[in-house]
Design a protein that fits this description.
mainly alpha; 5 helices; elongated
């Protein structure tokens, strides 16, 4: 459950960068880290928020930049929640408020998964992992 929260929070934070919601979301994230993290974490988080937002503003492909940055925020939040599990409810609240502030274009994420050919398998997850263990029984069946 916390993994899903962390993934959603990381996605929401980077989705807000370089949008009209950024000032509000930036403030909320900085206050969250200041409240539940160490002073060094809070100072580093504020610098990272500003640096990440600047990267997205300069990026030729902002969505690709957001995808790259999301994992870093997930790690920061995961580490913070490991030290302070009592912060989970506040993080959920932050995510809800931040998502409501996002422009419509940043509220929707699209995932396309395609499989083709005999024996093909496709799976996907938004904000999580897919682990697939296929039995090894020989060559794939031939379609007739």
């Amino acid at each position: 459950m916390l993994e899903e929260l962390v993934a959603t929070a990381g996605t929401t934070i980077v989705a807000a960068m370089a949008t009209s919601a950024w000032d509000t979301v930036r403030h909320q994230v900085a206050e969250f880290v200041r409240r539940f993290g160490a002073k060094e974490q809070a100072d580093a988080a504020e610098a990272l928020l500003d640096g990440n937002a600047a990267q997205i503003e300069r990026a030729k492909d902002p969505e690709k930049a957001r995808t790259r940055l999301r994992g870093g925020w997930e790690q920061i939040l995961e580490d913070l929640l490991a030290d302070r599990p009592d912060a989970a409810d506040e993080l959920r609240s932050l995510v809800t408020r931040a998502q409501a502030a996002l422009p419509p274009a940043q509220r929707t994420w699209v995932q396309t998964i395609t499989a083709s050919g005999p024996g093909s398998v496709a799976a996907g997850a938004m904000g999580g992992d897919v682990i697939f263990h296929a039995p090894v029984t020989g060559p794939p069946p031939v379609q007739q």
